Amino acid sequence: MSQAQAAKLEQYEITDAVSSFLASPRKMLVGDGWVDAKSGRTLDVLDPATNRLITSVPAADSADVDDAVRAAEQAFVSPDWGGLSPAERESLLLKVADVIETRADDFSQIITLECGKPLAESDEEIADALSTWRYCAAWATRIEGSSVNPINPIIPEKSAFGYTRKEPIGVVGAIIPWNFPLINAVDRVAPALTAGCTVVLKPAEQTPLTALLLGEAALEAGLPAGVLNVLTGFGPEAGSPLAAHPGIGKVAFTGSTSVGKLIGKAAMENITDVNLELGGKSPMIVLEDGVDDDMLPWLAAGLFYNSGQVCTAGSRLYAHKKVFDKVVAGVADIAGSLKLGHGLEAETEMGPLVSPEQQQRVLGYIDSGVEAGAETVTGGKQWGTEGCFVEPTIFTNVHDRMKVVKEEIFGPVMVAIPFADEAEVLEKANNTSYGLTASIWSNDLSKVNRLIPRLKAGLVWVNAHNLLDLALPFGGVKQSGIGRENGLDGVEEYLETKTVIMYS
Ligand code: NAI
Ligand code: MG
Predict the structure, then answer these.
(1) What sign does the CA torsion over 94, 96, 97, 103 have?
(2) Can you tell me the distance from the alpha carbon of 457 to that of 282, in angstroms, rounded to the nearest whole number?
(3) Residues 6+ apart with CB under 8 A from 92
(4) Active-site option among 277, 391, 492, 493
(5) Is 311 an annotated catalytic residue?
(6) pLDDT in tens, 66-111
(7) Nearest bound ligand to CA 243?
(8) Active site residue 277
(9) Looking at beta carbons, which pairs linking 321-327 to residues 24 or more positions away fall under 8 Å?
């Protein structure tokens, strides 16, 4: 930790565990050991609210990937993991959740320190991670194949019988982004372990500490060596060889569509299965009747939650022309009054973006909107004198060819667009290469039910946005991804069907 950062942190009540966690450079988890990168290289972890150094972690490359995949392959077939009964696996996984819960304050502070979000949002992430972990674990004892009578038995004097077994797909390579450092990890690790797989987890270079803490919690709970490995490092050096490794049974990737395409190509070289949870440019569609005042905070949170760094973010607000001015003014009021600050300050409602690069990227989008003639209703600038803050920003007077309307910004920038009728809003809402989520705000069920099947999205909310439920499948269509997370669908992503045809 830098001296300046240490002085800054003295203002807050950092837990002893977090202080000692940050006191020296971290190591990564391969098998049962905490190790440096074989190359000896490291990468710095910064607090995005101050841009000061927190600590450093190993920068893994392909040699470390080989070691981690080998450890995961050995654990996969070991008696103390591969040999566990489903009930034993479930109870072991529940112990991991208990350790995460015991260490909730440590997780919360680490998430806020490396990612920037307010502590309250980190706490929400932990609650979400715990219920996901426990919900998944329960599926371990409920995995079922089916029995099918062969329709064309070839040996008439024998009886024929067929059934399917659901078997774990093998070692999972999980590569995740920085916007929800714990949930992104748990959404991949929990269903994979539930299915009986082992995991090599590569967290984002901006937020490796939460994943290392998860590795600690897993070992503390008694998860056998090699079941969960955590490799810290950069995408091209550590993520890329993981996706291309022939020992991997499935690559589970969450992140940008451009990297998702690279991962898909690398995996396909070995015919490795993929689950891709990618970008979005989700529409929030407010119909003529859809503006209750108590809905306005939910519409604002639809985009500004987590500083807009959410794959499902409602970045395009479409409001019927009769209510457009009222909706935009209401959402702008809320956005303009959000209290920005360090995530560890109790009053903070919106933290910084995750990194200087992300801040510059988002400010670049804002400039491009202004240059193209968009009108700024609120925000539009960097905020404060240090750290990666950007004001909550809303643009009107935009058209479909502008970058701010077409591309995923992944920051607190909303575009608001009026529409006259259902046909117009459908055409506009679907006019994107993405198809992750959409929301419709109305109590007119006949209109709502006409729109739902026509929206090209993997998930549609009615009178809500961003509220995922871990029992319900989540994932995208078009360039927003392949496969689903959550629900039984999410666990089945990590199972392979083996068919048995038996004559006796
Ligand atoms: P990214 O997609 O580059 O990073 C996500 C993960 O992929 C990280 O762990 C990274 O190390 C890894 N990675 C990067 N390049 C790789 C490669 N060649 N092979 C294997 N792994 C690789 O996202 P980044 O650069 O952090 O953010 C850029 C933009 O991506 C954001 O502005 C946002 O638009 C989008 N994004 C979308 C997310 C979503 O959930 N929809 C999450 C994060 C970013
Ligand atoms: Mg990148």
Answers:
(1) positive
(2) 8
(3) 84, 221, 222, 223
(4) 277
(5) yes
(6) 999 999 999 999 999 999 999 999 999 999 999 999 999 999 999 9
(7) 1
(8) yes
(9) 321/418, 321/419, 321/420, 322/288, 323/286, 323/288, 323/290, 323/291, 324/416, 324/418, 326/291, 327/286, 327/291, 327/296, 327/299, 327/416
Helix (H) or strand (E) run with residue 414 in it? strand 413-419
Question: How far is the centre of ligand 1, averaged over its atoms, from the C-alpha of 261 (Å)?
Answer: 11
In whole angstroms, what is the distance from residue 450 CA to residue 460 CA? 12
- Helix residue ranges, H only, 270-398: 296-304, 324-336, 356-371
Task: Quote the DSSP letter at residue 175.
Answer: E
**Which of 43, 209, 259 is the best mutation target for the ligand 1 pocket, counting ligand atoms within 8 Å of the beta carbon and taking the most?**
259
259 CA distance to ligand 2 centroid (A)?
7
Q: Which residues contact 277 (CB under 8 A, 6 or more apart)?
A: 253, 254, 255, 311, 475, 476, 480, 481, 483, 485
How confident is the model over 457-491, as pLDDT tens digits? Answer: 999 999 999 999 999 999 999 999 999 999 999 99
Q: Give yes or no for residue 410 CB within 6 A of ligand 1.
A: yes
For 29, the token pair is: 């988890």
- What does the block give as tokens for 434? 């993405």
Contacts of 288 (CB under 8 A, 6+ apart): 320, 322, 323, 442, 444
Q: How many Å lie between the centroid of ligand 1 and the Cα of residue 279?
A: 9
Which amino acid appears at position 238 of this protein? A
The pLDDT-based confidence of 291 (bands split at 50, 70, 90) is confident
- The answer to whether the pTM exceeds 0.90 is yes
